[in-house]
Amino acid sequence: MKKHRFTFLFAASCLAALLVWIAESRSVAQCGSLTPDEENQQADIPQQVSGAFLTGSSRALPPAPAPTLDPAFGPQIDENLARAVHDGDAGLLTDVALQLAEGQRVLLRPHKELPTTGVMRMACRLAAGRGDAASLGRLAKAAQTCGDKQLGDDIRAAQKTASEARSPQPALLASVLDMPAETFALYRACLQDIRAARLADDRPLLKTLADALPELPLLSQAQKDCLAGEAKPSPAADDEAQARRTCTALLHATRSRGALLPRSAQVLNQLASTGAASAQAKHLADKLNAASRAACDPTNPACG
What we know:
Helix content: 55-70%
Order of helices and strands: HHHHHHHHHHHHH
Distance between the termini: 90 Å
Number of helices: 13
């Protein structure tokens, strides 16, 4: 009797478990079913995702970073070099030169594209022109540490030149207060662009700037003559010439991504938009922007 009772209870338990399982399966099936509209929405998801990548929406992958000339030295070297030359920042350019020297000491090899002494000469040239005694002093110590006697002599000569008083050019004697704001902004932007292009020996941009001078609005003939005198290439030793070529490639590659564009082009666009200058100003700005990108050597990794 007890055996039959146990068998009955076991069968009842199995039946109850089966009924519970069937009920749960139906519930899941009902919850998981999709209406026709929901099925269509799910079918559109792959197209929406692929469309985001194709159209460049916020869900798309970010653009690939610019290639680094020598990854072991880090991308900051490239960025700082381009920024220092564009801004005429002797201190930052000296930082780059000293970082190259330190990297060369640690890695026991020079940078693949940037000769350390060449960048030091560029920094020396810029610091001398700026009268930056502090940067020249740092470079002199670095040259002594490197044991480069010729570089050390060149830096000491630059220190002497920087300490000598130089008479300003007549076109620069005019007081800023006597010059309209638009004229001063354009003159200053052109002078900065010319000096940056000459430091990097960016000859295509230098030529475009020089050719544009006669057509520049607002500037007097004396100011144009002063800028023309600045827009002359300067000779350089072989190591500096190589550093300049690499720097020019870096600058043009950076400008092709929309950064560090010529200041003179930006001012000309502003003058044209506000009516302070004719539409010819915008045409000149377009020419300068095109020249600032066109000289990038496609065989150089900096051009990407």
